[in-house]
Amino acid sequence: MDEQHPMAHYIALRINEVSAILKTTKLYIAWKNGEEAVVDFSDLISSNKHFKPLSNQKKFHAVEHASWGSCIEWECGIAMGSDQLRHMADEQDSVLHRQRLAG
After folding, report:
1. pLDDT by residue, tens only, the chain of 103 residues
2. Whether 94 contacts 65, CB under 8 Å
3. pTM of the entire structure?
4. CA-CA distances (angstroms) from residue 29 to 2, 11, 90?
5. Which of 86, 81, 61, 63 is nearest to 71 (CA)?
6. CATH at 34
7. Three-state SS letters, the chain
8. Measuring CA to CA, how many Å separate 7 from each of 3, 72, 91?
9. Does any domain span residue 87?
10. How many distinct structural domains can be found in the chain?
11. CA 34, 80, 10, 18: dihedral to nearest 10 degrees?
């Protein structure tokens, strides 16, 4: 039996659009496959020294997608891959879902 490598059908997520939501540390992200999410960076910014520069609203809002949609970048040099962003979105959505069920 021919077995394929588990990553044989993996398609990298590409970001089509990213924009900061005013007066927040949240990003709206649209992937090229049609998925959309809002990702909250507040916990990451407050707990990780590498993301501290993004506590400045002006710096946080200076975000763009880069590398043909494989990541996002801020002018201050911080970057994050599209797969990690999707993981954060899924994780945050799961937490919200659990909170709704409990509330």
Report:
1. 556 655 445 567 899 999 999 999 999 999 998 899 999 999 999 999 999 999 999 999 999 999 999 999 999 999 999 999 999 999 998 765 566 666 6
2. no
3. 0.81
4. 38, 18, 12
5. 81
6. 3.30.2020.10
7. CCCCCCCCCCCCCCEEEEEECCCCCEEEEEECCCCEEEEECHHHHHHCHHHHHHHCHHHHCCEEEEHHHCEEEECCCCEEEHHHHHHHHHHHHHHHHHHHHHC
8. 11, 23, 22
9. yes
10. 1
11. 10
Residue at 8 is within a domain? no
Range of the domain at 94: 15-102
Domain assignment of residue 9, yes or no: no
From 86, 77, 29, 28, select the one nearest 53 (Cα to Cα).
77
